[in-house]
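Need tokens for this chain, all 119 residues.
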Amino acid sequence: MSHQYRDRIQSLSRRAEQARESLDPDPPDEERAMEILREGFGPTVALYCEGRTGESWVRFSDAEFERLEGAMNDWLDCYGACYGVALDGTYSIRAAAELLVDTHNARDVAALLTGVPER
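Here are the structure tokens for all 119 residues:
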């Protein structure tokens, strides 16, 4: 695995932890939810897509894959918290990537995976 991906995974993971600490305890906070999708969830899923669809297919190590998927779930947990919903953080990054390819919209992906916000 190139340092390019490893460093980006670590950065996204650290930023998700920081985002969790800065959440507004009084939901709903739709503006913050969209910020989380733009700055964290979307880029995390896009990184996975890039590694799997680029000119050279990237083999993530087990640890890197777990950290990447964990970061994505942390971002989704933050997203859910913005609506007062506790999520279980067990979503598949592959499923998220497939939805992103179909929808081209991180907000739609998050809503389809989590059911948040309720419609």
